[in-house]
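[#protein-structures] MJ: dropping Inosine-uridine preferring nucleoside hydrolase here for a structure pass
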Amino acid sequence: MFTKRLVWNFCVALLISVLLTIPAIAKEKVILDTDMVMMYDDGVAMIMLARHPEIELLGVVTVAGNTWIPEGTAYALRQLELIGRSDIPVAEGARFPLRANRYETIELERQMFGIGASSYIGCFGRPEPASYLDVYKEKFGGEPTLKPIEQHGVNFLIETIKANPGEVTVIAIGPCTNLAMAIRLAPEIIPMVKRVVYMGGAIDVPGNTTPAAEFNWWFDPEAAKMTIRAPFADQLIVGLDVCEKYRFNKAIFDRVTSVDTPVTKVFKETYGPRFEKDANFTRLVWDTIAATVTIDPTLITEEQTRWVDVNADYNLDYGRSLGYKKQGPAGTQQVRILFTIDEERFWNVMVDLLTQQ
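AK: finished. structure tokens for Inosine-uridine preferring nucleoside hydrolase:
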């Protein structure tokens, strides 16, 4: 009896020691580079990344695009407040695209390249607010409980990548200005980046801001060209080729709003009026797809690898993304392009993360 007990104790001790030596499953380290909006695709993408147990969201860097920096920063802070994630730093990044005076000359560009008055041009279509505090007070009332870090977003990218070599996935769901500036200032970080996931480009389909160009890469074509040509270890384009296949609808809205939380309340306030006017209303979810396939790459059901480039010449094709099935122009890299996903599982992941208590 005594011998059996000794053997049993020895086996238990051995099992515990073995378990203690097994490393914990590492979380996917992510930086979200975003032209943040409130509870649309960027905001939903951030909430999903912040809540997923296998993702470590190292920080959020704002960039001009859909929103000006003060707007995007205010929206990022507010949504992090809603989910109680004061630990996630928000850094303000590039205020303007790389092309000098683009904002000031945008009306001339409309005339030159035939960009219609109804075409979406993001923050270029309105004045820039003075500060994120002004935006926050106007939109939400009172003072934010969080504030952005003092470090510039580009420097945050560089230092965070250097502190985690080979581990960081950068999800660039806005214009590529921050990432382009980071690799120009510190090209040594290029081999240190694990992966770049872009929401941008339109490879085999027309653009959505111009017939040639998708919005994010149209907003700063020089930056998109610079980053997509950088020899990162892995690059994945989540462009209009996949994004225009899947639409959020009332059935998904009803699933999200069936639970009462601070997040779903804002979600209901955002989309509820749309569905009250039109029960058949739908919208695309661009950035949410980029976040979800980072969370779970097995959602990808079809992708192709091509040499990819971006037209940065200031002409009618400004911002056009180009995918070559054979060897592309000198300097182009082979990049993965997403074409289809498992739609049912995609919506399930989104709903599950938005409805967490």
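MJ: nice. Residues 146 and 265 are 20 Å apart (CA to CA).
AK: one more thing. The domain at 28-246+285-354 is CATH 3.90.245.10 (Inosine-uridine Nucleoside N-ribohydrolase; Chain A).
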